[in-house]
Structure formats: C-alpha cells, structure tokens
C-alpha cells in the first residue's frame, strides 16, 4: 500500500489498457472491427482475413469465409467465441466468394442483429455486386441464425446500424458513397427511401460508415481516400439522416501504406475508444490486417481530437 507502488501499479494498469496492447487480437488476422458494449463486456465483430490460395479466393485480394466474435471485460484479455457465420451456411451467399466483408451487430429488445455483406448466389441475382444480410441471436456470441434472403433494396458493403433514443433504427452502408435509410421495427427491412449522404467531401472513395450520438450531436464517421490511403474523418448533424457537416480527421492516413482503415467508436466505463485496423502482422500485404484500439477524446465543443496510433 505504499504510495510509490500504488503509482507504479497505476502506470502499469494504464499502460496495459489499450495503449501497449496493439494489435489486440493476436490469434488470427482480423479487420473492420465493429465494437459494441453489451452488459459489462466489449464485443468485437470483425472481418476475418485469411490468405487466398489456388482454388480458394482470389490471390492478392481480400479473402474472407466466416466471422468470429471476440469479447473482453478489460480490453486486455480477449476471448474468441469462435465462428458465428460461414459463407457455406447462408442460403443467399455464393459459397465460393470469400467475400464476408465488414459486419456490424446491434441489440434490440434482447435480440442481437448481426449485419454482414457478401456476394449473392444466382438464386438472388446474376449481378455480382454485394448485398447485405442479417442473422439473429439471443446472445451476442451466438448462435446466430441467418435470414434466407438479403435486405431488399440494399446493394453495397460495410453495414452499420444506429438506434436513436426514440428506438428508431437506421441502416448505413457504402458503395463509393455512404447511404442511409430507416429500418422497420423488425430490423430486417427498410422503412424509408434510400438517401445518399452527399454533404461529405465530394472527391475520393468514402466507405465504412459508423454513426453514434453524444450530447445531442450525431457523428457520422467514415474512412475516406483523400490522398493515397484511407484516413478516418467525421461529420456532424442534429439528425441521424443529416444533412451532415464535415468536421475533421480522426486518424491520418497510414504512414506505412495499409490502404484500408475501418473503425468503430464506443464508450466503455466512462472512456471513449476508437477501434480500427492496420496490417501489423503482415507488413508486405495489406489485406491481412489486425484490429487495434486506442483511447479517443472530445473537446468541450464536441469536436474529436485526432488519434495517433500507438505502437506495439
Ligand atoms: O475488409 C474488406 C473491406 O476493406 C471493407 O469492407 C472496407 O471497409 C475495407 O476495410
């Protein structure tokens, strides 16, 4: 109990709290982390990068065949709950497409809704573009039961769901631009026209939307290719469907050339965190990525301070 050892332990605990732990998932490649707080744990729903080989995916490109879910009570010890969805076990997905890209998950009335993009098989459409499907569970870690068809009226990737204080849910996704629509109470169907969120910087690809609300401000955060690789930017509004006003950069482009970044932002035990990815364990191939986390801070006026990625 002497003050010096209390100080040393505090420094150790602080430094082990998402500062010195990156990348946080180390047993496999993970990307596109959608972090959520359910109960007293953080859950991460990431993409699962694997390496393509002859007859399995497209060599040199993203290769993803399933999703795992991870959880932690302290941001340091992560539990891998195993596979929750596989490309071969969803009716509408092309089982050879290896395109289980960035997902999201949200809770409503005690059910967990897992949203994931993939390329459909011919029973859905001949068109090879992405659709977005939903799988439902009673627990965050599954088992999840996928719907047999993707969401009608949605073509694209990177689903994100936000539920406002009044219970209204919104689906966001991307396909070059960022799109948004209201969801019905069943969380499975659109309940409005699709809106393109056009008030963002006009040049360059924008994808990976993540929306949250803090003190009455709706934040639309997204990766944007302003120069060479993606950087994380944000825009704000007083309405979940905008119009949004561009506010700034949350994380600069990767200095080492990982072309994608994809993120989520959550508050856990009074601290805000940014989850994102980088190719820490695959410096020569930027489609084998690893999930990272760092603390995120707001200024008094609600603007977000830039996050500098911590090193390992
Ligand atoms: O992981 C595949 C794709 O790369 C995601 O859908 C994009 O957001 C980018 O991270």
From TrEMBL:
GO terms for biological process: xylan catabolic process. This is Family 43 glycosylhydrolase. The keyword Hydrolase applies. The record marks 158 as: Important for catalytic activity, responsible for pKa modulation of the active site Glu and correct orientation of both the proton donor and substrate. The chain holds residues 5 to 316 of 450 of the full protein. It comes from the Bacteria. Keywords: Carbohydrate metabolism, Glycosidase, Hydrolase, Polysaccharide degradation, Signal, Xylan degradation. Belongs to the glycosyl hydrolase 43 family. Residues 1-20 form the signal peptide. It comes from Aestuariibaculum suncheonense. One of its GO terms (molecular function) is carbohydrate binding.
């Amino acid at each position: 109990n002497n003050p010096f050892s209390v100080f040393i332990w505090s420094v150790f605990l602080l430094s082990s709290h998402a500062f010195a732990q990156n990348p946080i998932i180390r047993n496999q490649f993970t990307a596109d982390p959608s972090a959520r707080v359910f109960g007293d744990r953080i859950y991460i729903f990431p993409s699962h990068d694997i390496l393509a080989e002859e007859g399995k995916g497209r060599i040199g490109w993203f290769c993803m065949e399933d999703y795992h879910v991870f959880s932690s009570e302290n941001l340091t010890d992560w539990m891998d709950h195993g596979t929750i969805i596989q490309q071969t076990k969803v009716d509408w997905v092309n089982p050879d497409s290896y395109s289980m890209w960035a997902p999201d998950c949200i809770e409503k009335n005690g059910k967990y809704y897992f949203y994931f993009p993939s390329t459909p098989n011919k029973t859905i459409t001949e068109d090879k573009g992405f659709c977005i499907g939903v799988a439902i569970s009673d627990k965050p870690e599954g088992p999840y039961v996928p719907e047999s068809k993707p969401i009608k009226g949605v073509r694209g990737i990177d689903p994100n769901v936000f539920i406002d204080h009044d219970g209204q849910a919104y689906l966001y996704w991307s396909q070059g631009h960022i799109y948004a629509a209201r969801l019905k109470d069943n969380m499975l169907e659109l309940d409005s026209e699709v809106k393109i969120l056009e008030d963002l910087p006009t040049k360059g690809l924008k994808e990976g939307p993540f929306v949250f609300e803090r003190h009455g401000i709706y934040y639309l955060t997204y990766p944007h290719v302003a120069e060479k690789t993606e950087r994380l930017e944000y825009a704000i509004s007083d309405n979940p469907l905008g119009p949004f006003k561009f506010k700034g950069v949350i994380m600069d482009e990767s200095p080492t050339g990982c072309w994608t970044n994809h993120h989520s932002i959550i508050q856990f035990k009074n601290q805000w965190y940014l989850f994102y990815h980088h190719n820490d364990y695959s410096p020569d191939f930027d489609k084998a990525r690893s999930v990272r986390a760092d603390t995120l801070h707001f200024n008094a006026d609600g603007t977000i301070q830039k996050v500098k990625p911590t090193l390992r």
